[in-house]
Amino acid sequence: MDDAGLKTEEGNARVLAAVADILGWFQILGIIVALVVYVSTKDKFVRFHAIQAILLELCIMVVVFVEVAIAIVLLITIVGYFAMIFVIIVTEFSALALRLYLAFNAFNGKAPMLPLIGKIARDQAT
């Protein structure tokens, strides 16, 4: 992943950025918290992490929605349904691992850019 070129040494900024990243696990609550963090701070580093967390969570919600729709269609065959449930679980744990990676980097003062949404987040943060 590319780096957004935003760095910070301030401890509070790093913690706020990490919180914005990790709370995405709680979906709507995570989006609301990240939006509050985004609006309430002028620090470009924190704003980048907050908007990237919002965009990431929206993307994950769309993917899971599509997976659930496919699982409903595959309910006709029990094997297909359970296969999609497995895919949904793998997606959620992968998303959790990605959030932990982003939060760890934010806490260490780094700003890795995710493909596709990272550039949008960087543009919105500045």
Please give a structural write-up:
The protein has 126 residues and is mostly helical. It has one domain. Helices cover 75% and strands 3% of the residues. The protein has helices at residues 11-22, 28-40, 44-73, 78-107, 117-125, and strands at residues 2-3, 112-113. A two-stranded antiparallel ribbon has the order 1-2. Helix 1 runs antiparallel to helix 4 (78-107) and helix 3 runs antiparallel to helix 4 (78-107). The model has no long low-confidence stretch (mean pLDDT 85).
Number of domains: 1
What is the average of the pLDDT values?
85
End-to-end separation in angstroms reads: 20 Å
The largest sheet is:
2 strands, antiparallel
In one word, what is the shape? elongated
Radius of gyration (CA) equals 16 Å
Number of helices: 5
List keywords for this structure.
mainly alpha; 2 strands; 75% helix; two-stranded antiparallel sheet; 5 helices; 126 residues; single chain; elongated
What's the structural blueprint in terms of helices and strands?
Elements (H helix, E strand, L loop, with lengths): L1 E2 L7 H12 L5 H13 L3 H30 L4 H30 L4 E2 L3 H9 L1
Antiparallel strand pairs: 1-2
Helix pairs in contact: 1-2, 1-3, 1-4, 2-3, 3-4, 3-5
Brief write-up:
Helix content is 75%, strand content 3%.
